[in-house]
Amino acid sequence: MAGAEVVVVGAGIVGAACAEALTLAGVRVTVIDRGGPAGGTTASGEGNVLVSDKGPGAELELAIASRAEWETVLGRLAGADVEWEAKGGVVVGTGDPAALTAFAAGQVAAGVDARVLTPAEVFELEPLVTRRVTVGVHYPDDAQVQPVLAATALLKAVRARGGTVVPGVEAVGVRRSASGRVVGVETGGEVIGCDAVLNACGPWAGGFAEAAGAPIRILPRRGMILVTSSLPACVRHKVYDADYVGAVGSADADLQTSTVVESTRAGTVLIGSSRERIGFDESLRVRVLRELAAKAVGLFPFLRAVPVMRAYGGFRPYAPDHLPVIGPDPRVPGLWHATGHEGAGIGLAPATGRLITELMLRQPPHIDPHPFRVDRPAVIGA
């Protein structure tokens, strides 16, 4: 296999976005994946592009930048149908409204368009939502994309610019020079020569990093989603309860569920979300599905009479401090990481790709990369 300037290990949405941004800048890229493109975590996502679920701080800044970058990337992918829907999001509370309104106020101060709603205004936006709502917040910038279509379109752009995408090739380590610098990726019997390797392996990034001689703390966090049968238009926005924000930021390994409900272009309704750290256990847990269904009916009572067509799940790359890992590894020159986005990888991918490209080419970064650095205690220890 011919060499490249950069080998991207992982053909999910984050790896694809990084490869697309690098090839746009003229970098010769090869993308490899032990499975097929977008066949892992990306295939098991809902397609969330959210600014609504993050409090003020580095990840919110990345999310705001990435929401804008999605528009730019979509312009470059003109003609590719990735089912982009700038539908907006509605967060609802059914208890004391103080916590949700305070959270929204903090986001507004950080630059998010967040509009507090009365119950009547919520019902105008979502007529079928439960009448127990006491407060809502409308986020016009929340959006949705079909993740497999998006990753596939990004990889198509990589190929069009002379890059290479090779499925069915597993990276098992890196080849290093006498000085310790990366000079290739080992794939079991073959070495792909390169100047740099980007670890975009999602929840498997910790395993590849260890094989490369630079362990990082990335753990799998499983999530499940229910899919209903096709319905007439019924849920207009991405709607979730106020508990979702707490579940996203929790470090608890035990099962947590919160309600996220949205329609797709095909007419099905996606129901999430769950989070639990159980390693790479793929067994179906009926208890999780029951919780998701019960909470969804609590948010949208009409769903009680709607059949569930299927359920699917996947593993998200979880970093202990809930921040992505983006940048060079100081322990192994030429080794880079783009992982740890957990359930926000779809939304954060474009800004991640742009930031990786800026750092590799020593260009001024469009956001501060320091919070996402590899050599922070939560990722590699003290």
Topology overview:
Layout: E1 6-9, H1 13-24, E2 29-33, E3 48-49, H2 58-76, E4 89-93, H3 98-109, E5 115-117, H4 119-125, E6 135-139, E7 143-144, H5 147-160, E8 164-167, E9 173-176, E10 182-186, E11 191-193, E12 196-199, H6 205-211, E13 219-228, E14 238-241, H7 243-249, E15 256-263, E16 269-275, H8 286-299, E17 308-318, E18 325-328, E19 335-339, H9 345-360, H10 377-380
Parallel strand pairs: 1-2, 1-12, 2-8, 4-14, 12-19
Antiparallel strand pairs: 3-7, 4-6, 5-6, 9-10, 10-11, 13-16, 13-17, 14-15, 15-16, 18-19
Helix pairs in contact: 1-5, 1-9, 2-9
Question: Care to describe what's here?
Answer:
There is one protein chain. This protein is α/β, with parallel strands linked by helices. The chain has two domains: 6-76 and 146-218 and 321-380, FAD/NAD(P)-binding domain (3-Layer(bba) Sandwich), CATH 3.50.50.60; 89-141 and 220-316, 2-Layer Sandwich (D-Amino Acid Oxidase, Chain A, domain 2). Helix content is 29%, strand content 25%. The chain contains ten helices and 19 strands. The chain has helices at 13-24, 58-76, 98-109, 119-125, 147-160, 205-211, 243-249, 286-299, 345-360, 377-380, and strands at residues 6-9, 29-33, 48-49, 89-93, 115-117, 135-139, 143-144, 164-167, 173-176, 182-186, 191-193, 196-199, 219-228, 238-241, 256-263, 269-275, 308-318, 325-328, 335-339. Helix 1 (13-24) packs parallel to helix 5, helix 1 (13-24) packs parallel to helix 9 and helix 2 (58-76) packs across helix 9 (345-360). The longest helix is centred in the N-terminal third of the chain and has 19 residues, at 58-76.
